[in-house]
Amino acid sequence: MAGIGFRLRHLVAKGSYLEATAAYISSGIITTGPWLSGVMALVVLNISTARYLHDADRTLLFATVVSTFAASLLIVGGLQLPVTRYLADRLYLEDTASVAPTCTGVLCMILPFSVVALGFLLVAPFDIRYSLLVATLFLTLSLTWMVMLFLSAAREYRRIVLILTSCYVLGIVASILLGQLYGLLGGLAGFTFGQMTCLSLLLTSVYLEFPSSQTISLAYLRYILKYWDLFLVGTLYTFGIWADNLILWGSARGQVISGFYHLFPPYDTAKFVVSLSIVPALTIFMIHVETNFDHHYQNYYRLIGANGTLRDLVRAREGMQEAARTGLGTILKVQGLVALFLCLVAHDIAAFVGLTPRWVPLLRLEIFACTAQFFVFAVMVLLLYLNRRRATLLFIAVFAACNIALTLVAVDLGDVRFYGMGYLGASLLGAIFGWFLLNNRLKHLEFLTFMAQY
């Protein structure tokens, strides 16, 4: 599923400096997807809405966007990995005709989650128009997360970048313009309109990229049962990322927004904003690390099919080890410098996003926590390349459990200086444990490849 990464890597290697820069920017936009638009919208709207919205309405808009992003990710988190595995298997068989029908089938499965949105409409103490917009945004984001999976194998990456970029701008501009005319309702309507436009265009791109005579396919459903461990990995990983937020929302320091949403705005703002700090790491991983690892991975299994010698297999396995070690090492250096720079300007970042100096230490903690959490993600991806699903499930479960336990301890201590340490500690422990498992599985890959069959 590293299709776009290979195309961008080729552009970096063969193109001019301008083309290489465009490739890195494209990678950053594609890897962050709708998340980037959400964070950008929150930052821009936090600044611009001060002129035409009351503080209560601004807080409600922030709470709505954060809550819908969290809910949509938690809802589809478990489904993403089994669907990705199914797509990877179909593409390995060069069955591109099944991509678009599968996309339709996946979206049809997500639609029943509208029951969740219906529940929101029944209990939320908001104007019915506002509730309908929130439900629409929730469903739109849920569908968009899934559609992005299908575009990871697309060739026309420029079209995807253009769609995402233009819709980011459209959503923010529409939110500001409609917000000035219709207040809170207009602000949410504009942002939702941008997300709906993005979903429509991305769907169109899938059907253009992968034409098929078949309308819908539900064959992927058997993968949810067959690869139940992948479903659990996706669910626990998503929950692990949001566990600290959920705990703080329900704590004594959490705030109840408009009698409905439970949030901790300073913490949520810090985590949302610094999540963009890992864009350089995601970019390098997509263009260099994953593609280089995949090259040696494909070579290893090609040698098995061609009855290659043990020496050849060892050489290919060592290539995977080197790709993982040097690639993640490079990311650690680059991301470390990014994190240090952001820590130096943390006061300026806090002022820009509306945080008081009291929350600057939290911002710095979140910067390093997001960096560590990226390595949890990277190790998870590489372990799944090796089909070490149970090992992946183990270390992701440790990551999620540690975030829950350490965040509960931090909340119990009652000092805001400890907030964020649970997320940081869990990410560090998860990354270290995951790297140990990855290194161990790579070291014994020949044994696992052949003896696991008996």
Structure, described:
- The chain is an all-alpha fold.
- The protein has two domains: 3-226, no CATH class; 272-451, no CATH class.
- It is 81% helix and 1% strand.
- It has 18 helices and two strands.
- It has helices spanning 3-14, 17-32, 34-48, 55-92, 99-110, 114-123, 128-151, 157-209, 221-226, 228-249, 265-274, 279-305, 310-344, 346-353, 360-385, 389-413, 421-443, 445-451; strands at 255-257, 261-263.
- The chain has a two-stranded antiparallel ribbon with strand order 1-2.
- Strand 1 and strand 2 (261-263) form a beta hairpin.
- Helix 2 (17-32) packs across helix 12 (279-305) and helix 6 packs antiparallel against helix 7.
- The radius of gyration is 22 Å and the shape is globular.
- It starts with a helix and ends with a helix.
- The relative contact order is 0.11.
- The model has no long low-confidence stretch (mean pLDDT 87).
